[in-house]
Amino acid sequence: MKKKLHMQNSKLLEIAKDFGSPIYVYDAEKISFQYTRLTSAFKKVKQVKLNYAVKALSNISILKLMKSLGAGLDTVSIQEVKLGLTAGFTPDQIIFTPNGVSLEEIETAAKLGVQINIDNLSILEQFGTKHPKTPVCIRINPHVMAGGNTNISVGHIDSKFGISIHQIPHILRIVENTKMHINGIHMHTGSDILDIDVFLYASEILFETAKNFKELEFIDFGSGFKVPYKEGDIETNIEEFGDKLSKRFNEFCAAYGKELTLGFEPGKFLVSEAGQFLVKVNVVKQTTSTVFAQVDSGFNHLIRPMLYGSQHEIENISNPKGRERFYSVVGYICETDTFANNRRIAEINEGDILSFKNAGAYCYSMSSNYNSRYRPAEVLWLNNKAHLIRKRETFDDILNNQIEIEISDKKKSK
């Protein structure tokens, strides 16, 4: 199943003209399509819960859109929990899956009533001792290497995430000693997972672990499905995966003697393809070896190519049918901030608008004020209309929360 963005280039150009550039634009209908695609893949399971991974794109209007679709939320910080509550989610619709946070932060989330997910023995024992009646999910590390690269592979033996499957006896000892209530088992192996057999293998480890706990309400399989980044790119076959895991999950529930909820935490899968990042070309610079298209943005707005080596397809929407030439697309930051090297793009002129595809996930949410640049605006394309959902920052925003102190001029004091 495929679905292209409904936003035509003409509409994107209007958005860039009306709201300025650089700017992030998200297609609500594409997000809705991806949500339906995922739920349909698991239609054979009676109880399925999709918790949108807030860290992918945390704008409150996006969260409200997710709520309207029927999603819950996967949160990793107390701030994301509060965003979810502000967006109208009830505590039972939110799971809190932090890593390396203090016991105090977890207790704060528990007081708010959200589902707690703990991924280390120390906090598990401390929390269970103090709050034995509070339901807790346990995050397991299945020791499976999966994901697009080492930075986004989080279920292998050297990962900081989750409690090792080899430490199950320690978990059981803590549960027995504290009499705490374990209502869920969870794993997340990584992002950009292509091989569904690897995911199914990890799922078997989770099923084996779940047998140790008699009062489970759900099993959460994380997420990490790969999305295509260009025409013809490979992606996770979510329909095949849904069919295979649904069958196995139903078999497990029958053996367990109880209908459990099958949980997932999609982030990138729901919002990545829905997003486009629009930038304006400031300068076309010819050097002895390269033609640079220098744009009004940098890794302060879109860090993924520099951080992960991610490949975002770039289209010249001002001249989409122009003769293709080779360009290196770079930003205005005072360090190397290359978006693309020697990329074939329709002929670029100064003032043209370029669109970066797959800009919905981990793009705005990882932006910064580096070089004291303003973070861009965000627009949601909903019901064939552009809605501004975040204003572009101003100089006042740069100064906000800074405190000026009086510093004497040494030269004058002499």
Automatic annotation (TrEMBL):
Keyword Metal-binding tagged: no
Binding site for pyridoxal 5'-phosphate: 224, 362
Superkingdom of source: Bacteria
UniProt pathway annotation: Amino-acid biosynthesis; L-lysine biosynthesis via DAP pathway; L-lysine from DL-2,6-diaminopimelate: step 1/1
Gene Ontology MF term list: diaminopimelate decarboxylase activity
InterPro entries recorded: Ala_racemase/Decarboxylase_C (IPR009006), DAP_deCOOHase_LysA (IPR002986), De-COase2_C (IPR022643), De-COase2_N (IPR022644), De-COase2_pyr-phos_BS (IPR022653), Orn/DAP/Arg_de-COase (IPR000183), PLP-binding_barrel (IPR029066)
Modified residues (N6-(pyridoxal phosphate)lysine): 55
Binding-site list for substrate: 304, 308, 335, 362
EC number: 4.1.1.20
Pfam families according to UniProt: Orn_Arg_deC_N, Orn_DAP_Arg_deC
PANTHER family associated with the record: DIAMINOPIMELATE DECARBOXYLASE (PTHR43727), GROUP IV DECARBOXYLASE (PTHR43727:SF2)
Function: Specifically catalyzes the decarboxylation of meso-diaminopimelate (meso-DAP) to L-lysine.
Family designation: Belongs to the Orn/Lys/Arg decarboxylase class-II family. LysA subfamily.
Protein name, entry field: Diaminopimelate decarboxylase
Organism field: Lacinutrix gracilariae
